[in-house]
């Protein structure tokens, strides 16, 4: 990979460097050591500030394309770039917006040209790409793409929304950015340039009443994670801007539908220049950041909270709602057990105070017992089950085979009434045969989660069938597909949509259709996400986007449904050997994708690269995939039946000891570790890299 993109490898020198410094200072006095360390910190900060202001040269030869330039941040950025002499191609949705921008740009030293483009239309983006192909020839291609266009969409509790309202926002905010990036990144490769994408602070946390927007931004964050890994082979860097609340036309009072978001917008910053400055820095700095957190709310509230345990995060949200009085009814106290997290800090201080007259060794022993007690109490609580499982009905999707099939049988084995959603008659018949003689009643329902009519029919049937149980105790969103798995260059938007339709919209469709039955029993919604919802891996674009999106959806509805006594639980399994990840299925999907790829793209990557990648991927899934499917089934069952279920379940050694810790690392360090891993495992490199 291009060494410019691997500056993150410097992170790997930090640990050894500090140890070496400590070794060199071993004979110095304590005061001198402290002075040296303070000096290192000050010099590091000064060096960082000096590097941040360095700009690349020849800005007048570096063309950029910016979407969403009618108003707001895109408009301001286009004018700023033109003011600095850069050639700007400004994508506008309307002629009126384009005309206004051209009028504002009169007299600026940079050339500004407007292009009418609707990023929600593949044809419109293709026409813009064709024009840019010729227009940027004199500049050697595009230096940068800025994916700025976006909408807020419908803003209210998920109970009052439908899948189409989610699709409308995802079509612009997620698929629009994918569409533009795929159409234009070959021009960015020519200049070894940059792709800058705005996600949001909403891509870190789920807030009440902004489900569609959150889902779209989570998905876009996942896409950026994947292409950042892939495009560094071509010298292209990918940068993400995460703004907090800003006062723009997007969040203007007349464009906001609910009091909830209106409340959020009152805290919005009016410093739009912070946003345009971050965009401009990502485009023009010699050493740009990989991520930009913008706004006080994002830096000092949303970002720190996003790293907290889920229970502690929910507790802080609950306290915030009490203080702001956003909603009158108080949430069910059972779901505010996370408030106990708020007692950890004061509790530790009280313990220190109580131990003030105790010998040091006894104080140390007291603190050493805390993790032991934690493990013992956690295990004791985890083993307590709900009573009357025979009266707690559950509905599970994707029961033809794999996790859903095994979970349905386990629930029936424990006497629970099970309604198993299957896609095919063959799968349903095989499951009924396997369940013969089990104490729990198991009934199959043919349902396709991608069709609203099919889900509605299943919901209507379940309405009557679960009446004797008082409703559904649990809904398990298990159905999913892997989709196409290869570099984004060989994929198209439709292949992303296929996977999102099942893994994301399928979950939303089932949850919306059935959660009124779960509210009756104050039950649970359990959804399988993935370790891929934490990290972006090479060649896993569609799957990663869909799982990031479903994580965002669960973040939002967890906040909303606790008012009704319903808890939401997420499973994040690593790599497991299921039919979805079977070697034959993976190779078959890859072959179909390669056969349908454009000839020019095939030449860029090379037949040899494809064959090696195909072989390595199949080998990797077989080598590192866990065959202990019971771990996932036990997690599912625990989430359904435990009196004190976890909010999140990380399953598999790869998820617990690699993916989870890595997801908390700085982006540059994470990329560096990926690079080292690719070197160790000799990951193939595209021919034109």
TrEMBL record:
<keyword id="KW-0560">Oxidoreductase</keyword>
<keyword id="KW-1133">Transmembrane helix</keyword>
<keyword id="KW-0812">Transmembrane</keyword>
<dbReference type="InterPro" id="IPR020904">
    <property type="entry name" value="Sc_DH/Rdtase_CS"/>
</dbReference>
<dbReference type="InterPro" id="IPR002347">
    <property type="entry name" value="SDR_fam"/>
</dbReference>
<feature type="transmembrane region" description="Helical">
    <location>
        <begin position="6"/>
        <end position="25"/>
    </location>
</feature>
<dbReference type="GO" id="GO:0008202">
    <property type="term" value="P:steroid metabolic process"/>
</dbReference>
<feature type="transmembrane region" description="Helical">
    <location>
        <begin position="335"/>
        <end position="354"/>
    </location>
</feature>
<dbReference type="InterPro" id="IPR036291">
    <property type="entry name" value="NAD(P)-bd_dom_sf"/>
</dbReference>
<keyword id="KW-0472">Membrane</keyword>
<protein>
    <recommendedName>
        <fullName>Dehydrogenase</fullName>
    </recommendedName>
</protein>
<dbReference type="Pfam" id="PF00106">
    <property type="entry name" value="adh_short"/>
</dbReference>
<dbReference type="GO" id="GO:0016491">
    <property type="term" value="F:oxidoreductase activity"/>
</dbReference>
<feature type="transmembrane region" description="Helical">
    <location>
        <begin position="360"/>
        <end position="377"/>
    </location>
</feature>
């Amino acid at each position: 990979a291009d060494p410019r993109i691997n500056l993150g490898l410097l992170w790997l020198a930090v640990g050894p460097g500090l140890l070496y410094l400590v070794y060199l200072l071993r004979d110095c006095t304590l005061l001198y050591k402290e002075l040296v360390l303070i000096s290192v910190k000050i010099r590091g900060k000064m060096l960082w500030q000096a590097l941040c202001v360095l700009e690349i040269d020849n800005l007048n030869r570096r063309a950029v394309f910016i979407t969403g330039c009618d108003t707001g941040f895109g408009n301001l950025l286009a004018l700023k770039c033109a003011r600095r002499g850069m050639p700007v191609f400004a994508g506008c949705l309307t002629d009126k917006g384009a005309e206004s921008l051209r009028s504002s740009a009169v007299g600026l030293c940079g050339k500004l040209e407007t292009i009418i483009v609707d990023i929600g239309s593949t044809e419109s983006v293709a026409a813009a790409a064709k024009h840019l192909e010729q227009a940027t020839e004199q500049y050697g291609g595009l230096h940068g793409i800025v994916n700025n266009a976006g909408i807020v969409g419908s803003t209210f509790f998920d109970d009052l929304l439908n899948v189409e309202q989610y699709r409308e926002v995802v079509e612009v905010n997620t698929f629009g950015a994918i569409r533009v990036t795929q159409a234009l990144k070959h021009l960015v490769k020519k200049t070894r340039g940059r792709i800058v994408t705005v996600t949001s602070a909403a891509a870190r946390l789920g807030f009440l009443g902004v489900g569609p927007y959150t889902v779209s931004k989570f998905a876009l964050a996942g896409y950026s994670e994947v292409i950042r890994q892939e495009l560094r082979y071509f010298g292209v860097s990918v940068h993400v801007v995460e703004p907090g609340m800003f006062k723009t036309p997007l969040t203007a009072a007349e464009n906001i539908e609910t009091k909830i978001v209106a409340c959020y917008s009152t805290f919005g910053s009016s410093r739009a220049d912070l946003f345009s400055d971050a965009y401009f820095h990502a485009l023009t700095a010699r050493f740009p950041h990989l991520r930009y957190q913008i706004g006080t709310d994002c830096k000092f509230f949303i970002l720190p909270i996003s790293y907290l345990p889920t229970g502690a995060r929910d507790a802080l949200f609950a306290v915030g709602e009490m203080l702001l009085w956003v909603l009158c009814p108080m949430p069910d106290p059972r779901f505010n057990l996370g408030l106990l997290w708020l007692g950890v800090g004061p509790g530790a201080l009280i313990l220190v105070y109580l131990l003030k007259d105790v010998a040091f060794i006894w104080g140390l022993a007291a603190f050493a017992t805390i993790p032991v007690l934690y493990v013992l109490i956690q295990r004791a609580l985890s083993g307590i089950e709900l009573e009357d499982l025979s009266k707690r009905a559950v509905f599970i999707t994707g029961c033809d085979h794999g996790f859903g099939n095994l979970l349905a049988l386990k629930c029936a084995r424990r006497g629970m009434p099970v309604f198993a959603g299957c896609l095919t008659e063959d799968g349903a018949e095989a499951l009924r045969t396997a369940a013969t003689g089990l104490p729990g009643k198991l009934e199959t329902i043919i349902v396709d989660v991608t069709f609203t009519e099919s889900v509605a029919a299943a919901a209507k049937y379940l309405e009557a069938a679960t009446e004797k149980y008082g409703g559904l105790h649990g809904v398990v969103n298990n159905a999913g597909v892997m989709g196409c798995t290869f570099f984004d260059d060989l994929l198209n938007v439709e292949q992303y949509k296929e996977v999102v339709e099942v893994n994301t919209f399928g979950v939303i469709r089932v949850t919306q259709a059935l959660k009124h039955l779960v509210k009756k029993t104050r039950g649970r919604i359990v959804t399988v996400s993935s370790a891929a919802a934490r990290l972006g891996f090479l060649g896993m674009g569609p799957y990663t986007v869909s799982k990031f999106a479903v994580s965002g959806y669960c973040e939002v509805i967890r906040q909303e449904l606790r008012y009704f006594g319903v808890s939401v639980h997420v499973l994040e399994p690593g790599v497991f050997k299921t039919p979805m990840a079977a070697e034959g299925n993976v190779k078959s999907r890859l072959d179909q994708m390669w056969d349908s790829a454009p000839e020019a793209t095939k030449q860029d990557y090379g037949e040899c690269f494809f064959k090696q990648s195909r072989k390595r991927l199949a080998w990797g899934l077989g080598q590192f995939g866990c065959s202990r499917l019971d771990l996932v089934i036990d997690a599912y069952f625990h989430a359904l039946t435990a009196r004190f279920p976890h909010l999140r379940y990380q399953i598999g050694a790869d998820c617990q000891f690699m993916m989870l810790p890595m997801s908390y690392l700085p982006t540059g360090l994470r990329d560096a570790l990926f690079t080292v891993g690719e070197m160790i495992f000799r990951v193939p490199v595209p021919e034109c890299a």
